[in-house]
Design a protein that fits this description.
The protein has two domains: about 160 residues, no CATH class; about 160 residues, no CATH class. α4 packs across α8 and α8 packs across α11. It has eleven helices and 14 strands. It is of the alpha+beta class.
Length: about 325
Amino acid sequence: MHIKDIIGLIGLRGSDPALAAWFAQHGLASPPATITANQGQKSARDKAHGMEYHFAFDIIHDRFYPPREAKRGSWASHLKSVTLYSHRPRNAPALPAGFWSGYVGPEASLQECLDGFDGQMQDFGDTAYFEKVLADDVQMKLWFDQRHRHVQELQINLVEDRQFIGHHDFDPDNEHNTFKQASTLLVRWLFERGHLKLTDALRAAGPGEDHEAILHFTKQRLHNHVWKSQVQDDPSLHAVLAHSQTTRPLILNDGTRLPLYAPWMLLKAADCWDAHQSLYSDDALPDWSERLTAFERSVTLNAAQQQAFLSALDEAYRCVKSAQGAA
């Protein structure tokens, strides 16, 4: 057994015969072929070697995206990562001799970690963090305990992007996607403000202003998602996008709270925030859920209201940019 053997397994489907053979060879139960949405991920522990295999279905990488439904309610799993080593003060399992040959291993000093990871280190006080791409789509991650001066953990992972808006947000048939314009207006804002990484030809063509046209553009040009690699390398932009998908406000350094949840911004631009909140709070109604869903599906912004939504995003971005520049 050598670390290169593990690298070759990363990304395989749980049902892949090569993965099943590897598990059988090392006395492990069969790898999970499917995972439900509620489970999120599954793990298999190799106690003899102190390793743990992690399987997932919702992987932010175009090779595995969108997730593939195996059967109703479950999704095809892939080997997403393997924890090769996790520090134990006593009775640590031993890997075969030569397993770490050519790679940074558990016995490495901080300087050896720096050398092995080309000097790229993130310092988090007591912990130093390293990562390095080893092969196509595969990286090594290492955590070093600076207080006790030893490697804390070593992992092999699929290289993943960071997702801001997912495929489900652009799915017209998604029953939970009641504010259908929220995501397409975000894409329009990204396009019109030059935040998307696009060729000149694509930038000249553009998605236009129509909801259906933006959906088509997103499917054809953005693969039905907005990821970090698709937008400009701008921390202020990333902060706005991340908080457009959560009800938690973005809190600036001066304590200012910016509520940027896209559905809420849509309601405010449509001037029906108060009406929605009134209905949302009146959950004693016998048909409350149906009425609330119908209300949300009925919210459609006209041209002026769409401009108000885009302007609100402009102002939020300006505030975040200003705050981060002053930090």
